[in-house]
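Reading a protein record of the kind used here takes only a little practice. To see the layout at work, look at the sequence and tokens printed below.
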Amino acid sequence: MDLYVNSALTIVEPLSFHKVHGDQIRLSENNTRATRDRLNNTLLFTNRPILANEIVQLYIEELSNDFYGLIRIGLTTINPDSFTSETLPKTMPTNDTREWFVPSPRGQPNIKKNKTIRLKYTAEGDIFIDYDGTSFIKYLTVSPITKDIWCALDLNGIVAQIRLIQTEARVLANPVDRARARYLLYTNNRQQENSSIYYSGELSSGFVTMKNCDENCEISDNIAVKKNATSSIIIDENLKRCMYIVMQILDMDHTLSTYLTIRCLIDGRPSNEHITLIDTSFDHLTLGDEIGLRVLPDGHITFSCDNRHVKPLFNIDLTVNDNPAVQQTSYRLEFIMNGRVTGLRLVGLYRPTDIEARTLPPTIGGGCQATILHRVCPNGLSGLLLPCRHLCVCFECGQALVDRHSCPNVKCRKPVKGCIKVYKD
């Protein structure tokens, strides 16, 4: 059965052969045509990872009458950029490994000039190949693929020249165009599912501020596309307990190793203590994934992708905002596109109820944020903490710490059980 569905074209950037290849290969036509000069050392890769269900098409232009053997085609999780002329394999491995997936042909495929070979894989780990341009056959099933994966082929056989073509995908070279198209596609899919991965009901809309982003971004749809390494999107919503923010990846540059940086702006200012670089140690991120940021009652901000592998980012002290008499501190999240993620949108956010926002954190850790920022409480020293009897905060901040946090004094850190107002002459 042919799995190609014409009405569900994958939105992709242009595909070509990678600049890293065997020394018996010549590339031309903007690196879409590969010609073999001699046998051996004829390995080729795609210029970027291919997406699940994206179809790689190889058009056979020339055959050799002097050599025999099939073209070998498969997948690898090894980034071709990591190879040097010394470490580049001369051929693909004969057996599947954790880094190479090379299906063996069934029987003798009919390889002819002016015919097309197609390959695709699914996120579940099924690899399909079509050797004669008629229908896909499942050649191999591996563990679910949760890494970037490149198409690899070895021109060490009867095929002497081959061309990489894209006719079964919607190819968009402009990153803003790709982001817009994927936004429409993902939004339509989300409406069909009637929810985000993170919330069974509807998320509330929000506003964002874009910094150094492409001028053609869709501000009305909260779509931000990277212009340079300082491009970012700020969520214009003050963080509260039990709030969560959902973002979605619309475009990526797979030549970079990390994904993006997330930091918290405190009263509009960045803090070195509240910034985290998101890399592959957090999770594997890919196009269409939803990123969820949750604010826990104790002030910890957690990160997850598609609601899996929840990991902490940093901690903010929300107790400073518990007392309305104290000047409120603003906490806002900023997503800096200084890595592989080059297109983001705000899917929505969950605004907690008043009861949820006032959920008390555990009585351990933390401290008065005002004291941490200013060394001493900016409202003066009028709160004597008990039982440690340290005078380092105002009475209002002291009351906010009772049964919630420990003493801000770094040499103390005892749980605060009470606060007495102190008067000075």
